[in-house]
Design a protein that fits this description.
- Strands 2, 4, 5, 6, 9, 10 and 11 form a 7-stranded mixed beta sheet that branches. A 4-stranded antiparallel beta sheet has the order 1-3-8-7, with no helix packed on it.
- With 117 residues, it is mainly beta.
- It contains no helices and 11 strands.
- The termini are far apart.
């Protein structure tokens, strides 16, 4: 059974940085994409960043591009999200996801990120 476990969330001040991590276990197949999504209170879940299997194959939401960096270790089934210059509007539960193409089959439980002004 595939499971994703996120870590690294917390309470920080605006302008600070955080690094989220996600480890996938029970992986029997090679999934093309690992990604981060987030959901703020009262809002729909939104895409943040994705990483393909090949180095440099990444994509970002316009809201975080230039501030967040996604990195992935394909062999270790891990993905990280380095978040710099955090803003209060980045406050959300951040979810790790894994799948093929635009279809994300597996999701983690989420980790809370709170940015105070």
């Amino acid at each position: 059974q595939v499971q994703l476990a996120e870590s690294g969330g917390g309470l920080v001040q605006a302008g600070d940085s955080l690094r989220l991590s996600c480890v996938a276990s029970g992986v029997l197949a090679s999934f093309s994409n690992m990604a981060w999504f987030r959901q703020a209170p009262g809002k729909e879940r939104e895409f943040v960043a994705r990483s393909g299997r090949r180095s440099g194959d990444t994509g970002y939401s316009g809201l975080v591009k230039g501030r967040f960096t996604i990195s992935r270790d394909v062999e270790k089934h891990t993905v990280h999200l380095l978040m710099n210059s955090l803003k209060p509007e980045d406050t959300a539960v951040y979810y790790c996801a894994m799948g093929n193409g635009a279809r994300y089959t597996y999701w983690g439980q989420g980790t809370q990120v709170t940015v105070s002004s």
